[in-house]
Protein: small monomeric GTPase
Organism: Biomphalaria glabrata
Amino acid sequence: MKSLSGNLRINVLGAKGVGKSAITVRYLTKRFIGEYSSGLDISYQSTFYHGDTPVKLDILDVSSQEECQAACHDLFDADAFVIVYSVTDMSSFQVARGIMETLRTRVTSRPSILLLGNKFDLDHVRRVSNDEIRLLKEIYDCFHEEVSAAESDQIILDSFHRLIIDALNNFCHNGRSTKRRKSLFENMSRKIGSVFRRKSFEGGSETKRKLIRISHNGVDRRSV
Ligand SMILES: Nc1nc2c(ncn2[C@@H]2O[C@H](COP(=O)(O)OP(=O)(O)OP(=O)(O)O)[C@@H](O)[C@H]2O)c(=O)[nH]1
């Protein structure tokens, strides 16, 4: 089956040091490296298979200049969002809540959101209570999991896949209209006609960021 030409964009957001890079790299390569570069947004390209149908992914690991995350409009122009906090850090949970509130005010249709509490291996020193999490889930209607990027990949993989499927289903239900989504939707609707039947969009835009392509066997290929 031919590849789709449009990309589904996922932005990974959250406070400094919560493990955004660790989670992104875990999802893409199943590896935990331990130390990751900070201060630079990294854009990864990968492919997700929806059945036999390839869906190209642009995953943007946003380095947490928190003021920038709040102010930079294009960080909220994505098809899906992974918002990360650390279970050991209440202030990171508040940052996550702030991001979700910003999303609610800036994104007109229902965004696909995965809220991930990372560093679950440090649960014995947790600072974020289940009541606070429950409240946030109720208000913002998001997926939620607690994970340890350091210890395992399975929940991270499953959660990303759930998020991607939800974002694809969003095309069906509300067909959000941005330029970048045109080719994705056009090709999707052709390939998965019964599910993705909406109008097409136009064009595509580039971000000047470090770009890493992940081949299907998980080997990194640095292209920029
Ligand atoms: N114990 C534990 N440490 C983790 C886990 N995930 C990441 N870390 C550590 O937390 C630190 C920060 O991880 P990063 O992935 O760089 O966090 P980040 O959110 O991308 O950081 P910035 O880009 O600087 O905002 C590193 O030392 C990681 O090794 C985890 O699940 N458990």
In short: The longest strand covers residues 42-50. Residues 1-5, 176-182, 188-208, 217-224 have pLDDT under 50 and may be disordered.
